[in-house]
Specification:
Strand order of the largest sheet: 3-2-1-7-6-5-4
Largest sheet: 7 strands, antiparallel
Number of helices: 21
Structural class: alpha+beta
Helix content: 25-40%
Low-confidence stretches: 1-24, 154-166
Shape: elongated
Radius of gyration: 47 Å
Number of strands: 27
Strand content: 25-35%
Length: about 700
């Protein structure tokens, strides 16, 4: 046995090879040593010398690839008298045990002028006579100095055939023989597969097994029939039966006439790479699934949090989880006494909507033994279960409910409590239906998180509504409805701010003075809190008292109010308009007088449809002490309407005040002929279609024509 064969047989030698030999792909050539002709180049080799047709002279290939020695000098034909290219020496039958060169072009295996390590193996000992005239050439990319040094040290110790044989698994098959059998394998093939020379003469399908991808095998067969290079990833089986992932590249070798004479196969055991990729893909899938779940939970919580009405939020909840998380679902909410108060259901199939609605109405037929009721009552925590006919018999009170549940779809179910402030306020039941995968423990955790978030959102909506009702009740308790006055019609409106806690200082008032005159007041205390509401109550009472005490005119009312606030040390600031109408009409008219304290001007709609404003100016209440206020007077035609309002009706951040006042005048003109109560309602809908961030007070007076 010569040194080369000893190197093939020595496992210690194989294990000592540098890691670059084991981890990097190579550009592969088959060269006929009798005349130095390149017969075959794999795709990486073709990229190094693009546009060169095979077969060609090995020195032509070397020049086309722009090979240079390590010192940067060109590698030329040995007949030129200069240093011979390693490929040329290999073509003359000389083994090359490792030399560093560089190529002029980049490829998938190397960038431009990147160092390559060349090894050459004459196949003089091939068992098939046709192969003994060939040499195998491999160019390996070396990107790290340490790897280059390691390869150099190995090359100095080992025959170049040991490098190739112990790292790259090669096979050669003969398509001219029946079934395209293997005619040569190198020792690395045996190391990878466990099969040696005993498989020569047989087709390589012995590597296939029960889980080998048949479609990939068909693609390989098709490429071989058509004379094309093919690359596939196959699950193959070693001689001992163990499976491994085999990256196979099979390329045709053609003669001078273009006829395929052999197939060269390169096998790489990429099991570790495939496993790493699968583990990475699995981790990415887990991360993507977690992200989708979080996005789903956040979207449900955001949708519920945007709804301020608790009944609307409860209605929405089942529809928000269908169909993303359930085939159908229903939510049950308890009242403060622990009684079932609100049941809503939703189904992914619109054709089952009526059944879902019917089920919501029949929810009371669920027995105490049902899981939904036990969770609802806090006797059981989050539950994952498979719903069967037996469960229906145990959990429902009548056959109709059981039949309805079967139509809606059973499958697996998740029941979770809706919690808020440590209390169970309801339950959410999710059902997968018969056509979806059953729920898992991860789904139970997601549903439990959903229940917690939804419970808090529903409780916030309930508290908001409660606080809003309390605020509105407080505000309205300070405002009394106007009394009927002969010859006049008075209508008032109060709308609280959209924010529950924004108790405002807006007020209106309308009353008859002892002398028969009618006083109408609109005002707005600065601030939006309980203190503003309390100050509003004080001012309203003061204005009413001052006006009624002496049948005072508007100017006197406001001047005495300024003095009273200063004398009592009250620091309240407010705007207001005090308007007084005469007790009796003159022919066709009724006299009015008004005084303004920094407030928006009232709007008057005359019987002929014209609209005007009652202009006025004056300091706001609380700043006008010791200053005269200006009172104005006018005659209103019978049938006229006067509108007093606070700034919440017209003020908008995205619109200039002048534009909004013009819109108000247009609206009053359009609605002037409507009944007074309808005018107020339509005016609010027209000016505030989306509600208001501020509270709004309106007082409208119509002088009756008679």
């Amino acid at each position: 046995m010569d040194g080369t064969h000893a190197a093939f047989a020595n496992d210690a030698v194989t294990d000592s090879l540098p890691s670059v030999i084991h981890t990097q792909p190579g550009a592969v050539l088959l060269v006929r040593v009798t005349d130095g002709t390149v017969l075959f180049a794999n795709p990486l080799a073709e990229e190094l010398a693009p546009g060169l047709s095979l077969p060609c002279a090995v020195d032509d290939w070397s020049r086309a690839a722009g090979l240079q020695a390590s010192d940067g000098s060109d590698l030329a034909d040995p007949d030129s008298g200069e240093a011979a290219s390693p490929l040329s020496r290999i073509a003359h039958g000389e083994p090359v045990r490792g030399e560093r060169v560089s190529a002029a072009r980049g490829s998938a295996m190397a960038t431009a002028r990147e160092a390559l390590w060349v090894v050459g193996l004459p196949l003089t000992d091939a068992p098939v006579e046709e192969l003994t005239t060939l040499a195998l050439v491999v160019l390996l990319p070396l990107r790290e100095k340490a790897l280059v040094d390691g390869a150099r040290e190995s090359a100095e110790q080992l025959h170049s055939r040991a490098v190739i044989a112990s790292d790259l698994s090669f096979t050669i098959s003969d398509p001219d023989q029946p079934d395209n059998p293997l005619v040569w394998v190198n020792p690395a093939f045996e190391r990878v597969t466990g099969y040696g020379r005993e498989v020569l003469g047989t087709n390589c399908r012995f590597l296939q097994g029960p889980d080998t991808d048949r479609e990939a095998v068909h693609r390989i067969s098709k490429a071989l029939r058509e004379g094309e290079t093919v690359t596939e990833l196959l699950l193959n089986y070693r001689k001992d039966g163990t499976a491994f992932w085999n990256e196979v590249v099979i390329s045709p070798v053609r003669d001078a006439a273009g006829k395929v004479t052999h197939h060269v196969g390169v096998q790489s055991d990429v099991t570790l790479r495939v496993q790493a990729e699968r583990e990475r893909d699995a981790a990415l899938a887990v991360a993507r699934d977690a992200r989708r779940r979080l996005e789903f939970l956040s979207s449900v919580a955001d949708e519920l949090s945007a709804v301020l009405d608790p009944d609307t939020a409860q209605d929405m909840l089942p529809s928000l989880v269908v169909p993303a998380f359930a085939e159908w679902a229903f939510a049950t909410v308890l009242d403060t006494a622990g009684r079932t108060r609100h049941v809503r259901a939703a189904h992914a199939n619109p054709a089952r909507a009526a059944d879902a609605e019917r089920f919501a109405r029949m929810q009371a037929n669920l027995l105490e033994t049902s899981v939904s009721v036990r969770v609802l009552q806090g006797r059981q925590g989050p539950t994952l279960l498979r719903v069967t006919d037996r469960d229906l018999a145990r959990g429902t009170g009548d056959p109709e409910t059981a039949a309805l549940l079967r139509r809606l779809g059973l499958g697996s179910a998740v029941v979770v409590p809706l919690r808020a402030r440590g209390q169970v306020t309801g339950a959410l039941t999710l059902l997968s239906g018969p056509d979806r995968p059953p729920y898992t423990e991860d789904d139970l955790l997601t549903a439990s998180d959903l229940g917690a978030r939804a419970g808090v959102a529903l409780e916030n909506a309930r508290l908001y509504a409660q606080q809003r009702r309390s605020s509105e009740t407080l505000q309205r308790s300070l405002l009394t409805p106007p009394r009927d006055t002969p010859g006049l019609e008075v209508a008032t409106r109060y709308l609280p701010a959209a924010e529950a806690a924004q108790v405002g200082g807006d007020w209106y008032d309308a009353f008859t003075q002892p002398d028969g005159c009618t006083t109408v007041v609109i005002g707005d205390v600065m601030g939006h809190d309980v203190s503003a509401a309390a100050a509003m109550g004080q001012l309203r009472t003061m204005v009413r008292t001052l006006a009624h005490d002496r049948s005072a005119a508007p100017r006197e009312v406001l001047q005495r109010l300024d003095a009273l606030l200063e004398g009592l040390g009250v620091t309240t600031l407010a705007t207001a308009v005090v308007l007084q109408l005469d007790a009796r009409s003159t022919p066709g008219h009724r006299g009015i007088r008004w005084c303004t304290a920094g407030h928006l001007p009232p709007v008057v709609a005359a019987p002929d449809g014209t609209v005007s404003e009652l202009d006025g100016e004056g300091l706001i209440i609380g700043l006008g002490a010791h200053r005269d206020r200006v009172q104005r007077e006018a005659q209103l035609a019978l049938g006229s309407t006067v509108l007093l309002y606070t700034d919440g009706l017209v003020e908008r951040r995205d619109r200039p005040m002048e534009a909004r006042l013009a819109e108000l005048r247009d609206a009053v003109a359009d609605l002037a002929g409507a009944p007074l109560e309808e005018l107020c309602d339509q005016l609010v809908r027209r000016m505030l279609p989306d509600g208001s961030d501020d509270d709004v007070a309106i007082a409208a007076v119509r002088v009756l024509a008679r």
